[in-house]
């Protein structure tokens, strides 16, 4: 896509992060938000490779991380163990604990390479259980799709703007509101499937490269996964995968994991 169109919000490597034009491509960072306090977002993790953060994720069990499919669709099975998941830290580079993934499951309906593809959701299973404490907690999934105008919180280590060249290491959060599908359709000139949800704060607020895969929380429960948008925070709603529609798929993968 050209720079005016949709972009994935991924940052697999620093060079890729700088050149990426959509969130749906790894990674993006919170724009216009606030620094998170210790323990404020205990369910978020930083996913890295070669020491470089590229996407966020959410702890949905002591063995499982929910993230965006576009973050991991290029990771071959033999490469899975080269990734690292950092939990319990406000920094993407230090602190907390590091975990090694052993398996990645991507929704089979996701179409790799299509920035606006629905079903942009994946689960990373880590080797052995996480140590849960006040800074590392499981987040529950919402039971229903979020309604328009509901207040939601996005968080991540993405860029502070599309032109920002320095990848941040500190966790930021931003509060926005869910946008109706009709408003989002007008903004993006396309109809959104039920499996996607939009959120918007104001011009200068939103997600950016490096925030891909990260959480959208509603009343402390996980409602969305950062998918794509127009980089970054330029007045268009950002698009998230609506977690509610994947509860059964998520439950099955968790249940099938041998502890």
From TrEMBL:
InterPro entries: Peptidase_S1 (IPR050430), Peptidase_S1_PA (IPR009003), Peptidase_S1_PA_chymotrypsin (IPR043504), Peptidase_S1A (IPR001314), Trypsin_dom (IPR001254), TRYPSIN_HIS (IPR018114), TRYPSIN_SER (IPR033116)
GO molecular function terms attached to this record: serine-type endopeptidase activity
GO cellular component term, pick one: extracellular region
Enzyme class at the top of the EC tree: hydrolase
EC identifiers of the protein: 3.4.21.1
Signal sequence, start to end: 1-24
GO biological process, one term: protein processing
Compartments it resides in: Secreted, Extracellular space
Keyword annotations from UniProtKB, A to Z: Disulfide bond, Hydrolase, Protease, Secreted, Serine protease, Signal
Highest taxon of the lineage: Eukaryota
Major localization class: secreted
Every Peptidase S1 domain range: 30-255
Entry similarity comment: Belongs to the peptidase S1 family.
The protein's name: chymotrypsin
